[in-house]
Structures are given as structure tokens and as C-alpha cells.
Amino acid sequence: MDFLTALVSLFTNYGYFAVFGILILCGFGLPVPEDISLTAGGVISGRGYANVHFMFLVGMAGVLIGDSFVFWLGKTYGLRALKLPVLRTVLHPERFEKVQEQFKKHGKWVVFFGRFMPGLRMPIFFTAGTSGQITFARFVLTDGFAALISVPIWVYLGYFLAHNFEELMQWVRRGQTIILGLVAFAIVLFIAYYFWKKRNGRSTASS
């Protein structure tokens, strides 16, 4: 709660620019939870210091630019970028190897689910860049689709509970579980639709 209060105070004073800057730095592994940053942006919107819909757009931009830059570092400089202090502290060789293995197995799905894994987000996106298995455009589309699920939840949660910090923090603690639940539900629907369409296609062809 103190962390959220500090971010709300910072964002109240410096507005959209502070939210945007913090979110980009989160992409580089800054030890500031992205969900709390987005929620704090929603809180100042709920208190009348910003427009919540524009805050959502700022949040999306900050998240995608931060993630894209990490991907670009991996794609452009490869393993040489691991010598940078900011990467060396959060992406040690063992973690990098584990992420590489997962990426070889699951490809772009690792990028999608990486957006919902605090602490692993940056290593996953950097590894995606070094892998050569995903283009920049595909990365942005995959990450953007995942961000469209998480970013509005945090921003609008802060907006609607801007004057009730106690209840807000309860929802923040449950938020990651709720988001993962929504993702799982969406995947189940997609799979069900895929098989339904495939089955109907066969029925049409046979008739």
C-alpha cells in the first residue's frame, strides 16, 4: 500500500509523463511492479488528475515501447547485450538457458504468457529477440494482444476504486489470478471455436 501511495503521489505531480516513463523502465527490469504502476495511473484518473481513457492509451504505449526495446536489444545485439549491467542483474545464464528452452518448445505462446509473468517478462522478451523465431511485427502483435487483456484491467481497477485503497489492494492481490483465469477461459473458448468450425467445415464438405 505504501508503494502504491508513493506512485500515486509521483503520478499526481507529473501526470502522464511519469506513468509513461515508469512503464518503459519496468520493461527494462526496474523493480517496480507494472500492475501497481498501471493501477496508480488509474487512481489519479479516478481522482480527477487525468483522463482514464487517455491513461489507458498511455499505459499501452509505455508497456509496448518498453517491451519492444528489450526485444530489439536481443534481436540486434544478441548475447553481447547480456554484458549490459541492467540485463546482467536480472538475466543470469541459468535463467536465460531455461527461457531459451521454453521458447524453442512453445514459440510465440511464451511471449503471450510472458506478459502475465512478473519477473520473467523481460528475460522472455529479450530471449524472443535473440531466438530469431519471431519477427518484430509478430512480437508486437502478440505482446499487444496480451497487453489488451491486462492493461485495461489494472487502469480501470484503479479508476473505479480510487477512493477506497483498502478494497483496491485486495483486488490488486487477486488481480493476477483473475487475469490468468480470463486468459485460460479465452483459450478454452478459442479451442472450442476452432474444433467447432473444423467439424462444421467437414459436415459442409461431406454434404
H/E series: HHHHHHHHH
Give the low-confidence spans: none
Question: What about the largest sheet?
Answer: none
What is the average per-residue confidence, as pLDDT, rounded to a whole number? 82
Give the terminus-to-terminus CA distance: 62 Å
Detailed description of the structure:
The chain is mostly helical and 207 residues long. Helices cover 81% and strands 0% of the residues. It is built from nine helices and no strands. The longest helix is centred in the C-terminal third of the chain and has 42 residues, at 165-206.
TL;DR of this structure?
The chain has 207 residues and is mainly alpha-helical. It has 9 helices and no strands.
SSE topology sketch:
Layout: H1 2-27, H2 34-46, H3 52-77, H4 85-88, H5 93-106, H6 108-114, H7 121-131, H8 136-160, H9 165-206
Helix pairs in contact: 1-2, 1-3, 2-3, 2-8, 3-7, 3-8, 5-7, 6-7, 6-8, 8-9
